[in-house]
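re: the backbone from monday

yeah here it is again, tokenized this time
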């Protein structure tokens, strides 16, 4: 998914050119649909588990189980129209869109926008978007650009508040302050960063982030606030380090925030908790005024069941934007005013909304305009001290391996960034393809000479298409390492010890590939079909036991 990690099936094939010595998207479980009375999900008695945590309610996740014979399941099936519906998200970690590496990837802002269209236009529901924070993964310039584009998207998708999370704070106090609207009118109409216990520059009265936000739609008042969990304090503001960020204890600030909100007589109060699940449960118990607590720190792919704490619900929506929660509020239903469903944003039920596609194009264009991929911010020294020479140089001796490599997906890895998936059965995805060849998060597994997980450019690695034409695609050196010493010694040395040393530097075994190399690009997000059990199946497509 974008963050934009465009990584298609690469590194597990990547031992593609031998140098001198050759080595000779998740299956969500079906959840029983909830019992319902009228409009809401009926809570069952909370059951204490062995660790003391209340058991989750039997709600549902709507999605696909991955098997071809399974019919697409409906979502929001049988729901009455709520007074207000909430779009609940969080911990997106920079995944703007499915990158195209795998056709089974879920999530993306464009599909989320299609769900919003269905809810607001087709169903005619009033919608309020809330996000628990964690929008990004890193704090580089690319992440700042992504942050701005995400908020543009949130603005279009009826969001009102985003909690301040770990990733937002890593951008720094100065950058967070740039998100502060310039006028009261802009403040009222903008998506707000909200936190009751985050203070910037030791100025509690600075007015940003907002301590809380009061939202009114269709006669329903909702009070929203957010807290940053103390469990994450040392990752943002460690003792003795001046970050211009102060984190107050939630118990210090929440009573006053609740008092302020209650003065407006809201129909519902919501707490966004960016910490861990236990902190969310503790806060739900300590402050029952918040009937809904949206929690971070849960499972990547939660089961979609609310956790009851008294009359309140603690909700998790997972990571990376693969799923979103829809919460219906039915204030006239005294017994149970809520109904919740976690919806998987799969390609079979949701289309790519053109507004978000345009936003994605603008994002990619800005990366190109600012030269993010060629910036010094991304430079990294290679631990070997050697330089990359390119597959063609390897192919001067390893002619058969080189010829085979050109026929594999690795050989066209860079081309897929420009043109879309190379598989014939995915030709439709090439229509209106958004090019990604200037995106570091995509380049790192589609060219040669980058660190694939850190998305940093080695000093002699790929820079751009013109400068580094010899490093296009997933080449041999991405697994065998830079080949400059090996090539130099093969061309110039007659000393056998030196020759053997050079060959040893680029030697990789099948065990190396199987253990840790391929997975650097073939991770669960970008290559979900690549599993340890299927390694041999993938390897057969790129094996190169050829000797010249």
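seq for it, each position gets an aa:
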């Amino acid at each position: 998914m974008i963050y934009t990690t465009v990584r298609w099936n690469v590194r597990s094939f990547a031992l593609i050119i031998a140098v001198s010595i050759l080595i000779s998207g998740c299956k969500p479980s079906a959840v029983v649909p909830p019992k319902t009375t009228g409009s809401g999900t009926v809570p069952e008695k909370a059951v204490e588990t062995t660790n003391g945590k209340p058991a989750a309610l039997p709600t549902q996740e709507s999605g696909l189980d991955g098997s071809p014979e399974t019919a697409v399941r409906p979502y929001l099936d049988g729901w009455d129209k709520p007074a207000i519906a909430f779009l609940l998200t969080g911990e997106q970690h920079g995944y703007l869109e499915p990158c195209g590496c795998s056709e089974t990837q879920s999530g993306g802002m464009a599909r989320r926008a299609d769900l919003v269209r269905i809810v607001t236009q087709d169903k005619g529901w009033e919608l309020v978007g809330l996000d628990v924070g964690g929008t990004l993964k890193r704090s580089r310039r690319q992440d700042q650009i992504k942050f701005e584009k995400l908020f543009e998207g949130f603005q279009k998708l009826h969001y009102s508040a985003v909690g301040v999370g770990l990733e937002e704070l890593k951008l720094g106090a100065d950058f967070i302050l740039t998100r502060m609207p310039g006028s009261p009118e802009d403040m009222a109409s903008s998506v707000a960063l909200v936190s009751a216990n985050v203070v910037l520059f030791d100025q509690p009265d600075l007015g940003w982030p907002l301590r809380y936000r009061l939202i009114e739609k269709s006669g329903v008042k909702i009070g929203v606030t957010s807290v940053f969990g103390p469990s994450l304090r040392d990752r943002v503001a460690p003792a003795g380090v001046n970050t211009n960020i102060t984190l107050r204890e939630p118990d210090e600030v929440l009573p006053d925030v609740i008092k302020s909100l209650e003065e407006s007589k809201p129909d519902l109060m919501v707490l966004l908790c960016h910490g861990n699940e236990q902190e969310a449960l503790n806060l739900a118990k300590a402050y029952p005024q918040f009937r809904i607590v949206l929690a971070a720190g849960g499972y990547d792919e939660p089961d979609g069941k609310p956790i009851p704490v008294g009359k309140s619900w603690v909700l998790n929506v997972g990571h990376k934007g693969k799923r979103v929660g829809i919460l219906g509020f039915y204030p006239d239903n005294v017994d149970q005013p809520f109904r919740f469903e976690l919806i998987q944003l799969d390609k079979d039920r949701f289309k790519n909304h053109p507004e978000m596609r345009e936003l994605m194009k603008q994002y990619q264009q800005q990366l190109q305009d600012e030269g993010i991929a060629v910036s010094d911010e991304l430079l990294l020294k290679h631990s070997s001290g050697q330089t990359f020479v390119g597959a063609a140089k390897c192919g001067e001796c390893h002619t058969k391996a080189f010829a085979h490599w050109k026929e594999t997906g690795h050989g066209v890895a860079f081309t897929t960034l420009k043109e879309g998936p190379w598989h014939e059965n995915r030709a439709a995805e090439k229509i209106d393809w958004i090019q990604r060849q200037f995106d570091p998060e995509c380049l790192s597994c589609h060219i040669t000479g980058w660190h694939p997980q850190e998305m940093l450019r080695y000093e002699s690695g790929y820079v751009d298409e013109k400068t580094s034409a010899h490093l296009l695609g997933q080449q041999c050196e991405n697994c065998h390492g830079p080949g400059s010493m090996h090539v130099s010694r093969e061309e110039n040395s007659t000393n056998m010890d030196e020759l053997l040393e050079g060959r040893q530097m680029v030697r990789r075994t099948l065990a190396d590939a199987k253990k840790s190399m391929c997975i650097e690009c073939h991770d669960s997000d970008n290559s979900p079909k690549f599993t340890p059990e299927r390694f041999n199946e993938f390897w057969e497509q790129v094996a190169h036991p050829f000797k010249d």
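The two ends are 40 Å apart (CA to CA). The chain is about 25% helix and 15% strand.
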